[in-house]
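User: Let's play a game. I give you a shape written as tokens, and you guess the letters that built it. Ready? Here's round one.
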């Protein structure tokens, strides 16, 4: 596995172009530094560029299929679903369409964001093409994301979700005794089990249980700072019997998760 870069990072942008954009943003008060978990006051119609750090996108919807009196009288707070990261050098924009809403939060401390209107890009035609290429790349990644989230088994959605995130943003990590040997790739930022659950349509408790199962089978591991890691592909291949044992074990776990889901559905009824 390799850490893939975004188009904005792979293109050799002239330093003077990027510096002019930063200078322009500062001159027009179109930039700001955010603390971790601070909400970014983004609004539709603007283009945002992450200069440094990382942005977490979340979505919510004011829709519900519940019809009971208890549900109607309950607090109408909505749960936010994790929609992905925007790393340094990447653009993002937010759309508004009732009853859906999107929000952006700084996921790392000292996250620096620049914003502008789309017509401002007319000042830098080459950079405008880079932005469009970056959005095309993000669109392709979201198609892969949707494919993963369409899997029936929760364990498959979880592993596919982690794999896509680490493929896009992962950094190599090495062993203490072997600094030249890449053990795998890890996500550079932490994610809570509740955030993961919101992304794959599951619960925090289920994610915690399945993460433990994936760790016990060597499919993922966790660093001391709770960073999620995927082992390198160079890891020796498991035997056929070992692979079958893993699949059988994961099937058992998924059947338990199905029971949890059915119990939750019955409680709603």
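Assistant: Ready! My guess for every position:
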């Amino acid at each position: 596995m390799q850490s893939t870069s975004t188009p904005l990072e792979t293109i050799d942008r002239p330093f003077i172009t990027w510096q002019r954009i930063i200078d322009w943003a500062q001159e027009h008060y179109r930039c700001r530094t955010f603390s971790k978990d601070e909400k970014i006051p983004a609004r539709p119609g603007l283009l945002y560029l992450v200069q440094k750090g990382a942005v977490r996108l979340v979505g919510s919807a004011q829709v519900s299929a519940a019809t009971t009196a208890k549900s109607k009288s309950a607090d109408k707070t909505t749960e936010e679903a994790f929609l992905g990261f925007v790393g340094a050098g990447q653009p993002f924009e937010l759309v508004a369409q009732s009853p859906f809403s999107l929000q952006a939060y700084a996921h790392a401390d000292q996250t620096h964001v620049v914003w502008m209107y789309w017509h401002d890009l007319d000042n830098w035609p080459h950079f405008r093409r880079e932005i469009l290429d970056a959005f095309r790349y993000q669109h392709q990644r979201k198609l892969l994301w949707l494919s993963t989230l369409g899997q029936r088994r929760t364990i498959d959605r979880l592993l596919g979700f982690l794999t896509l995130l680490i493929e896009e943003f992962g950094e190599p990590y090495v062993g203490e005794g072997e600094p030249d040997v890449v053990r795998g790739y890890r996500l550079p930022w932490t994610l809570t089990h509740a955030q993961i659950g919101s992304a794959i349509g599951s619960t925090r408790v289920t994610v915690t249980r399945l993460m433990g199962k994936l760790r016990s089978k060597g499919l993922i591991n966790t660093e001391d700072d709770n960073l999620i890691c995927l082992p390198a592909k160079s890891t020796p291949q498991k035997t056929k019997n070992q692979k079958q044992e893993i699949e059988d074990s994961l099937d058992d776990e998924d059947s338990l998760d199905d029971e949890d889901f059915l119990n939750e559905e019955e409680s709603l009824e």
